[in-house]
């Protein structure tokens, strides 16, 4: 699972700009998807003794 935390930051910044309704919808959906991937990764790593999150950043 590839997670790009730069995408999360980029989407957050985009939401602070003037977007059309359709653009905002797209960015919000993509942000939600990226955050969900990150949450899944974090929760799966919390059960593993040797999970190193730094390799995903």
Structure description:
The chain is 61% helix and 0% strand. The protein is mostly helical and 57 residues long. The radius of gyration is 14 Å and the shape is elongated. The model has no long low-confidence stretch (mean pLDDT 83).
Portion of residues in helices? 55-70%
H/E topology pattern: HH
Low-confidence stretches: none
Number of helical regions:
2
Structural class computed from helices and strand pairing: mainly alpha
Strand content: under 5%
Output mean pLDDT.
83
Q: Globular, elongated, flat, extended or rod-shaped: what is the shape?
A: elongated
How are the secondary structure elements laid out?
Elements: H1 5-14, H2 21-45
Could you give a quick summary of the protein structure above?
It is built from 2 helices and no strands. With 57 residues, the chain is an all-alpha fold. It starts with a helix and ends in a 12-residue tail after the last helix.
